[in-house]
Design a protein that fits this description.
With about 450 residues, the protein is mainly β. The chain is built from two helices and 37 strands.
């Protein structure tokens, strides 16, 4: 009974004293002099099962490019997809022609073009799909008509278009009318099924925040829902479940100091109610990423504000902490993106200036993973060696109590394995992946 109480108290200590600033490792540089990056994404360009970095740069001679992932967080030199005196502001990735290779659709160059860049064995061939005038613009992809292929939506200026895919990247267009077609000034877009009818709806921001209903693949302006979310000019919108009730809430950033960064609850039927202010007066939000950064089962918010990185932690009910600073080295970070870059189960971050990665060293929530009875980890406590018995081959990762990785992806043979640990930590979290199961065990040091 005494040992069980000790383990419980230790678990509370580990997770209650974790410092959010120390949660992220020191930056890993990918490329210098990248202040003009406007968008970042991760996608497997060359089909080697490693996600590569794709970026756009505004007002530079190289406007769309990528860095191949060579493994172990090493990346190749920059590979250019599109060059010239362009003003590409955004792009979206996906296999639009269903040939098994990730393509790119971009918007915003000096010709006001929407272009698709077909990926043919890692070589890109560009084709203009449409042109229309815009200053700021955005683009997003989803299966709008539920026919099994990837469509996309492009907004810019006063124009909102849906591009329906026939499955071979031949597109037909629908121009969507909004509340004030000549005054819309679109800026951001988010796509998700807000009313659980199986079709992806759309919300845009700009001069207005507007909801567009998807009815059997046809997009129309929804005046009733729009009237409930319109807080004036919004620079950012995202649909995401922030209060863990199973539906998608609306996160936005208003230029009004009375709202700032805020979110509205979804009532489960696609109606947005009860506004909640997260930060009434952020200085200047350039970019936002929303992920479960501390692996506690809810979505946290990461922002680039005045070119520094901050995080707001969620208490699982949509109540957010005051922002904690992650990075403030005066580098003009205007774009931030998040994905699991090292395949350890948590969300890392990558930012624009200089293009760099920061790994997330959060210790994963142990209660999510039942212990695998086919694995035995001993002794406890340990001195400098740990023994792991597993009935099937697998791999092991070892964390200290600060959430930092001590050893990663150690190969385990079936049977007995001995691992040396030359570290001065007070204890460790041992993660074992074997027989399609994940096990965690807390081990103390002598």
């Amino acid at each position: 009974m005494r040992n069980k109480l000790l383990c419980l108290l230790l678990l509370i200590y580990v997770f209650s004293t974790h410092n959010i600033i120390a949660q992220f490792a020191e930056p890993i540089l990918v490329q210098e002099n990248t202040t003009k990056i406007t968008n970042i994404a991760f996608a497997d360009i060359n089909n080697d099962n490693l996600k590569d970095i794709i970026v756009t740069k505004k007002v530079e001679s190289t406007t769309i490019s990528y860095f191949l992932n060579l493994g172990d967080l090493n990346f190749s030199e920059e590979n250019v997809i599109l060059s010239g005196s362009s003003l590409v502001t955004n792009f979206v990735t996906g296999d639009f022609n269903n040939d098994g290779w990730i393509d790119i659709v971009s918007i915003g160059d000096n010709e006001n073009s929407v272009r698709i860049h077909f990926n043919i064995n890692s070589t890109f061939i560009s084709q203009t799909i449409d042109t229309f005038p815009f200053f700021e613009s955005d683009i997003s992809a989803s299966d709008i008509d539920n026919d099994g292929d990837l469509d996309f939506i492009a907004i810019g200026g006063t124009t909102f278009k849906v591009f329906y895919n026939d499955g071979s990247a031949n597109f037909t267009q629908q121009t969507v009318s909004g509340p004030q077609d000549n005054l819309e000034d679109f800026f951001d877009i988010t796509i998700a099924d807000i009313d659980n009818d199986g079709y992806q709806d759309i919300i845009t921001s700009g001069a207005n925040t507007s909801v567009y209903k998807n009815t059997n693949g046809i997009i129309t302006y929804d005046s009733t829902r729009s009237s409930a979310v319109n807080n004036g000019t919004n620079l950012m919108v995202k649909l995401i479940d922030l209060d863990n009730d199973g539906d998608l809430d609306l996160l936005s950033q208003s230029n009004s100091n009375s709202f700032g960064i805020n979110w509205k609850e979804n009532d489960g039927n696609g109606n947005f109610i009860n506004s909640h202010v997260i930060d009434p007066n952020p200085y200047s939000v350039e970019s936002v990423a929303v992920k479960d950064f501390d692996d506690d089962g809810d979505k946290d918010i990461l922002i680039s504000d005045n070119f520094d990185l901050y995080i707001y932690n969620n208490d699982s009910f949509g109540n957010f902490s005051t922002p904690s600073i992650i990075h403030d080295n005066n580098l003009s970070i205007n774009t931030v993106y998040s994905d699991d870059l090292d395949d350890d189960g948590d969300y890392d971050i990558i930012w624009s200036a200089d293009l760099s990665i920061q790994l997330n060293n959060t210790t994963l929530g142990l209660d999510k993973y039942p212990y695998n009875n086919n694995v035995n980890i001993y002794p406890n406590p340990i001195s400098d060696k740990i023994n792991i018995f597993t009935e099937t081959p697998g791999k092991c990762t070892i964390y200290n109590f600060r959430g930092q990785i001590i050893k990663k992806d150690i190969i385990l043979n079936s049977g007995y394995n001995t691992i040396e640990i030359n570290d001065q930590s007070q204890g460790y979290i041992i993660k074992v992946e074997a027989n399609n199961k994940i096990s965690y065990k807390k081990i103390l040091s002598n």
